[in-house]
Design a protein that fits this description.
- The protein has 366 residues and is α/β, with parallel strands linked by helices.
- It is built from 15 helices and 7 strands.
- The protein has 4 domains: 67 residues, no CATH class; 76 residues, no CATH class; 108 residues, 2-Layer Sandwich (Nucleotidyltransferase, domain 5); 74 residues, no CATH class.
- Helix 4 packs across helix 7 and helix 13 crosses helix 15.
Length: 366
């Protein structure tokens, strides 16, 4: 018997106020200036939300804080309620818009910095922690910004769709356009085809954008990208490629397929200008033109300064004392041939500081 009573007592749960299934009454709006927002009663006058959907709580709030509104009668009473409704709706709309905009801004920064989408949750923790110290009364505002992994991914997708739509509208104004295609390989060893478009409008405005970046499973990706952005072959004036056989072959490669498509559309393929991409021409020239007399001196000087910890620290202190434009020299990487320009430009800018440092260092060594 005791065991049975014990089981009965154990199964009895404590009654929760939220489990009473209270429903908002429409007459509370007319009587107490309250409306329902996301399942909670919200005061139209002060915007305060009550925790429990209960008439006694609503009436107590109205009587203690807004009893003077009893003076409004008839149409004035209804006009006041309607005006407060519109004001609350505008506030919620502005709040929702700002929260959504903040989510887009942070998501754009995450995408720009090439950070994982999960970083949004960490950023939100930082925002909330800073808000708790700086603006404790607005912590809930920062907590309402959605930065979950899925949200950041959706925001980036939405921004990509907006950019694509904008590019489509821009492409419609092109009088003529040309394409530049370059094949590269990402860190997963997957071949990627980068397609750039450069167009000119009737007002002679030049615009250049990245049209598409797609995995290379077929050269027809270029034609698909043109169709996706509604770029007609009638306005295609030229194609620049990296000179690879998959690009400039005469049978099934990129330029051949494009010319076949133009022939199918009764266009003259001979009007299409096919050239080697200028950036690759510069790369070939850079490898052919060694500039040994310049590069050997510059590289050896930089190595003397940066490869030794003491020299590097002393050189940075010298630049700081002289208030130079830059704080240090930069290395040259043979694989990344474009870094040669940055290295030479930085060295030329700091040539007087380098000369002074080398003279002092060599004199001190003697």
């Amino acid at each position: 018997m005791r065991r049975t009573c014990h089981c009965i007592v154990a199964t009895v749960k404590k009654r929760k106020v939220d489990a009473e299934c209270r429903v908002f009454q429409e007459k509370w709006t007319n009587d107490f200036f309250f409306v329902e927002v996301k399942g909670k009663p919200v005061c139209l006058v002060c915007g305060e939300a009550l925790a429990v959907m209960k008439k006694a709580n609503v009436e107590r709030h109205y009587s203690s804080k807004h009893a003077k509104l009893d003076e409004l009668r008839g149409q004035m009473h209804l006009d006041k309620i309607n005006a407060l409704r519109r004001s609350l709706g505008a506030q919620h709309a502005a709040f929702t818009e700002n929260v959504t905009r903040a989510s887009f801004v942070v998501s754009e920064l995450i995408a720009t910095k090439l950070k994982p989408h999960a970083e949004g949750e960490f950023v939100k923790e930082c925002l909330v922690a800073a808000a708790e110290l700086l603006t404790p009364d607005k912590v809930k505002l920062f907590q309402s910004v959605s930065l979950s992994r899925r949200t950041v991914s959706d925001r980036i997708t939405d921004m990509a769709q907006v950019i694509e739509k904008t590019l489509k509208n821009t492409a419609r104004d092109f009088e003529y356009f040309s394409l530049a295609c370059d094949e590269t390989t990402d860190i997963t060893n997957t071949a990627q085809l980068a397609i750039f478009v450069r167009g000119i409008t009737t007002e002679f405005e030049m615009k250049e954008e990245l049209l598409s970046l797609q995995a290379m499973h077929g050269i027809t990706k270029v034609i698909m990208a043109m169709n996706n952005f509604e770029l007609p072959f009638e306005k295609l004036s030229g194609i620049a490629t990296d000179g690879a056989p998959a690009m400039v072959g005469a049978q099934k490669e990129l330029t051949a397929l494009v010319k076949k498509e133009m022939s199918r559309l009764s266009l003259d393929p001979r009007d299409l200008v096919v050239c080697h991409c200028i950036i690759h021409q510069e790369s070939l020239c850079a490898h052919s033109l060694k500039l040994t007399n310049v590069m050997k001196t510059v590289v050896s000087t930089i190595n003397v300064i940066k490869s030794r910890g003491l020299n590097n620290c002393q050189f940075k202190e010298l630049l700081s004392e002289l208030e130079s434009e830059y704080g240090d020299l930069v290395y040259h990487c043979e694989v990344r041939w474009l870094s040669r320009e940055n290295m030479l430009a930085r060295f030329y800018t700091l040539r007087e500081e380098v000369r002074r440092f080398m003279e002092e260092t060599c004199h001190g060594a003697q």
